[in-house]
Amino acid sequence: MIDDKSVLAIVPARGGSKGLPGKNKRPLQGKPLVAWPIGAALGAACVDKVLCTTDDAEIRGIALAHGAQAPFLRPAHLASDCASSIDAILHAVDYLAERGEHYDYVVVLEPTSPLTASADVDAALRTLHARRADADSIVGVSRVESTHPEYDVRLGADGRISPYLAADFKSLKRRQEIEALHFLEGSLYISATPALRVEGGFYHGRTLGYEVPRWKSVEIDELVDFLFVETLLANLDQLAALDAAAHHS
């Protein structure tokens, strides 16, 4: 609960994956990938219930073993490559509502973002709850750094490059001069339940951004991402120290 508002956390985890087959069941530091967001949700003080929606019986078993509820297997039409993720989320919300369980907020944590911590979930929820007068949802964002569009170029048919934004290369801005931009990084999604139904998603004009450091924004889609996250997890102390230094600078 947050004040008197109930919170449902949903972990969506399909059985199919083209980029990294079986990734949601793949062990990350000895724990299946799907178990990481479940652990983050269970550890969040504001979350009342953690539900895993999956079409895969083995993933369902893993979810149950790690403390989530998984009362159903997702219908096949909500688990295909072209199925909408929001439809799968609303299916889970409706399943509970039909059984008399209603929640004021819905949190979605995906296995592809295993670096999200319980503290992130609570902080984002509290931010949204405090801003309910002018916001209905909050999503993870991270600052654009090395890939800032100021430094993008076009590659011409003749092989020559030209600036994408600047008039010429002499006009390129220094890093200290560029506008701060952020990208939608997918580590967490939270919405007031009525707004989720009305908007059909988490992104709209009343959406806040919850800023996370670049290292937490890594999403696992391919093997190289998985290996990268393993390295990050092995160096969490150093990363935490960097974050602390950044907050005090």
Automatic annotation (TrEMBL):
GO molecular function: N-acylneuraminate cytidylyltransferase activity
Regions crossing the membrane: none
SUPFAM superfamilies registered for this protein in UniProt: Nucleotide-diphospho-sugar transferases
UniProt-listed InterPro entries: CMP-NeuNAc_synthase, Cytidylyl_trans, Nucleotide-diphossugar_trans
Superkingdom: Bacteria
EC class of the enzyme, as a word: transferase
EC assignment: 2.7.7.-
Pfam family, one: CTP_transf_3
UniProt keyword rRNA processing present: no
Sorted UniProt keywords: Nucleotidyltransferase, Transferase
PANTHER family in UniProt: HAD SUPERFAMILY MEMBERS CMAS AND KDSC, N-ACYLNEURAMINATE CYTIDYLYLTRANSFERASE-RELATED
UniProt name for this protein: Acylneuraminate cytidylyltransferase family protein
Upper lineage: Bacteria, Pseudomonadati, Pseudomonadota, Betaproteobacteria, Neisseriales
